[in-house]
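Morning!

This is the sequence you dropped in the shared folder:
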Amino acid sequence: MAGCTDLAFRLVSRRRGMEFSFLEMVSANGLMHDSGHTADLMKTVPEDRPLGAQLVGCEPDVMAAAASRIEEMGFDLLDLNLGCPVRKVTSQGAGAALLKDPAQAEQLFKRVVGAVKNIPVTIKVRKGYEDDSGQEAVEIAKAAEASGICAITVHGRTRAQGYTGKADWEAIGKVKRAVGIPVIGNGDVLSSTDAKKLYEISGCDGIMIGRGGLGNPWIFGAIRAELYEGRPFVPPTLEEKRQTVLEHLELEVQFEGEERALFHMRRIGAWYIAGVPNAAQWRGELNRAQTIQQLRDVLIRSLSEENFAPTHAASQPA
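The structure's back. Tokens below.
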């Protein structure tokens, strides 16, 4: 979710049912070197709680020092990233590459747990690096539990898969049965129905929503209503969708400034209009927008009643 879960995204989602969130992934080296980019990623406000930070890195001493700083900054939880599949991360031995080196991972876990005094430390992993069996995640989970890690989130794909193919929820269950600490399932949860199936197949203790929340901040409220509160969820109206994306836009402007907000919202706006009539046309217009007002106008028109009228929708399919 790097580049996605910024402060504006988190606030929009919290207001629609998300109860806990993480920052975007933060480099331990960047944090220790006081990188301006890292500071930007860590922006927050009092409304943005409870909030976890996620560190990526592979050097135990650096990760421990960064973890201590995270705790001092007041975050509610620290997560260690062993799931990022991006080559520039794995080529340095970090992210999902640690799945291939459980001894190094265990050393890292122990140093970080020893450095943090008052907040939980968790990890997020993929089911494997290239091994499709899920056994690499099992071994890492056992090492994590022995090192004092409080919980583990498992994404049901290998590093080699990236974000392709289907998430393997059975592999999440394999990890769940191997350890006593809570296991959180992740991958391909796009609805409350998916969330229920993931619970049933894996027996996991909780669910982490990733890409399923992009352009759909209502998913959190839907899962809570239908799985935990036993009541039907009322989907948002077209007007509510339109007001939500405009709220997202205003928050991007507030926290990022107009220039960066314009850049961000070309991508974010495309999440919200996915599946609307003439979506390809609207994405093109978003990418051509040169001002915030132009971009706002495209979003309003794409999510207008007129765009959903049968004669209009049939004239130019997406």
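Headline: Residues 106 and 143 are 6 Å apart (CA to CA).

More detail when I'm at my desk.
O.
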